[in-house]
Amino acid sequence: MAEKLTGQTIVFQNPPRIISHASVVGKDEGKGPYGKSFDLVYDNAKCGKASWEKAEKKMVSDAIELAMGKGSLAANNIDLLIGGDLLNQIITANFLARDLDIPFLGVYGACATLVEGMALGAALLDGGFADCTLIFASSHYQTAERQYRTPLEYGAQYPPYKQWTVTGAGAYTLGWLGGEVQLTQATFGSVIDLGVNDPNDMGSAMAPAAADTIIQHFIDLQRGPQDYDLILSGDLGEVGKSLLIELLLEKNLSVKKKLQDCGALIFKGLKGYGAGGSGVGATATMLGSMLIPRLVSGELKRVLLVGTGALLSPVTVKQNESIPCIAHALTVEKIPGG
Amino acid sequence: MKNINKTSDQYKKIVSKKQPPITKARNIINAFLVGGLTCIIGQGLWELYILLNLSKDNAGTLSTLTLIFLASLLTGLGYYDELGQFAGAGSIVPVTGFANAMVAPALEYKQEGLIMGLGANLFSVAGPVLTYGMVSAFVIGVLIEVFGG
Amino acid sequence: MGNYWTAFLVGGFICALGQVFLDNTKYTPAHLLVGLVVFGSVLTGLGWYEPLIEFSGAGVTVPVSNFGYILTKGVMEAAKKDGLLGLFKGVLEIASAGVSGSVIIAFFVAILFNPKC
Questions:
Q1: Could you state, in order of their start, the residue ranges of all structural domains in chain C?
Q2: Best residue of B2, B9, B13, B18 to probe chain A, by most A CBs closer than 10 Å
Q3: Which residue of chain B is at minimal alpha-carbon distance from C37?
Q4: Is C31 exposed, middle or buried (0-12, 13-18, 19+ CB in 10 A)?
Q5: Which of A20, A311, B121, C74 could anchor a disulfide with B109, C-beta 3.0 to 4.6 Å?
Q6: Which residue of A has its CA nearest to B96?
């Protein structure tokens, strides 16, 4: 049975394992440096469906099917489904759950949704309330862009620090048997807003939330950057990443050599993606296709995964509100001897 | 926010230091060139239609319509947004930008149907322009009636 | 009605001003278009737009400010003829071709094409 929160951190007494996982991405992500690591790359943003929203749902459904297949799991093995996406009323997750006969919790933490879901799923396991949970999250360039910004073919000029929503979905099953990595601690962040109100610059808006959660994680566990082989943030992009380094340095935490960012990595080397990728799809796909393989190979032993979310809505942007942000952290470790 | 003791102003200063700068000088030159060239095409069409025996006014209207057609077509083919990345205001300020602002949302929302999707969103960006254009024309007309006449 | 040089220079200058506006404020292109139309309308009311057309031709008829010009010119001419009613009748008098044309063309293009994936 887990202990009560220390500060904002849960320490799992029986660390749940990631049994199986799958990640699927769009065409552009497939051209990036990790293109070959993803389980499935679609060559068209519509994935053969009539609308982009239906395409996003198809991606999630494929990811879930692949993850369940890899873990040899059937629907009746899964106690609970936890998932979300970036669209209003999390329609991708809700409409997908309609097709599955599994109890479902819809969660929204913008681009922190995956880490939020994983932490909840792990807590339910460790608490003894479930034996197997399936967590998923997705984002899609076309669906997100038209909800949050302008129509695709509209000729507005982007600033050089704009981030590009990743088209991708990831699904992860948590349980007790199998798998080679486990989740050992989770830190839940509080909502932070330092007044950034430019919807094209979400990396800058989210960096303080990431810094706050990372500092809190270190305080709660009396740890520091030296205790981790890698700190992997969600979708801060290049600009947000350099801001996070600076904010932590002010607290005498030097993470420059240890910090990487899913959003900045996924399009690395490709031209025309501004400060990198954004969207929960970045974390949801890179965790499975980049981080877990590196843990399994033994290159990394303990990693702090920090999901970052900008909790804006198109309405609040028009009303000139600044962007509240959140970050949740999850320690992912290679199972000793496993 | 207990771990980050910073005011919004202090943070914004760090942000502006870390953001890659907008290349303002280059943007202005690009906007000037593309906008200027669009006007040259407009001028050329205008003079061409006058040569074809249209009245000066009709030739002007037809050259505007031609530009609207070309910009709409480029939007449909998916090139206008790329031009916009290069030209900035140079492809927004001319009437071609207005045409792009009508076609782009209409294309995008076609998925939601021809009436509430395409039909309604044709005016999502262009609507404010029409509204304020008509209202300001009316107000100026009233002012002239009252004071000038 | 101007020549190629004046059209290029004046049209380019208006676009450059628009770029300065976009790069130095948080306003969107929609704000810029609305601003230009109102600007064109005011210049027309002051009687300055026609001399500008004489000088720079397409340099001021291609930018969206021209839309403000034709709307306002329509109102002013109709008001002379029909008085108060003209204030309403005149709005689309001259602008009709441009407004109807862009709606009709935009409609058919949107029907024929799809956004690229």
A1: 4-112
A2: B18
A3: B133
A4: middle
A5: B121
A6: A155
**How far is Cα B79 from Cα A29, in angstroms, rounded to an integer?**
22
Counting other chains too, the contacts that C80-88 makes at CB distance below 8 Å and 24 or more residues apart are C84/B145, C86/B141, C87/B138, C87/B141, C87/B142, C87/B145, C88/B138
* Local confidence band at A4 (pLDDT 50, 70, 90 cut-offs): confident
Partners of A155 on chain C (C-beta within 8 Å) are 29
- Residue range A181-334, CATH number: 3.40.47.40
8 Å CB contact of B32 and C15: yes
The separation between the first and the last C-alpha atoms of chain C, rounded to the nearest angstrom, is 43
CATH topology of domain A17-175: Peroxisomal Thiolase; Chain A, domain 1 (3.40.47)
**Mean pLDDT to the nearest integer, A213-230:** 97
pLDDT tens digits, one per residue of A250-283: 999 999 999 999 999 999 999 889 999 999 999 9
Q: Is A46 exposed, middle or buried (CB count within 10 Å of its CB: 0-12, 13-18, 19+)?
A: middle
Residues C115 and B105: their CA atoms lie apart, in Å, by: 10
For tokens 């501004």, name the residue.
A274
pLDDT digits (tens, 9 = 90+) for A85-105: 999 999 999 999 999 999 999
In this complex, do A247 and B19 lie within 8 Å of one another by their Cβ atoms? no
Region(s) of chain A under CATH 3.40.47.40:
17-175, 181-334
Which H or E element spans position A23? strand A17-25
Whole-Å CA distances, C111 to A146, B104, C102: 19, 12, 14
Of all residues in chain A, the one with the smallest CA distance to B77 is: A153
Nearest beta carbon to residue B3 from set A151, A156, A212: A212
Q: Supply the pLDDT for residue C115.
A: 87
Weakly modelled stretches of chain B, pLDDT under 70: 1, 149
Please say whether the beta carbons of C37 and C64 come within 8 A.
yes
Condensed to tens digits (0 to 9), the pLDDT of residues A327-336 reads 999 999 999 8
Task: Quote the DSSP letter at residue A191.
Answer: P
Instruction: Give C39-61 pLDDT, tens digit per residue.
Output: 999 999 999 999 999 999 999 99
pTM of the model: 0.94
Report the SS3 class of residue A6. Answer: strand
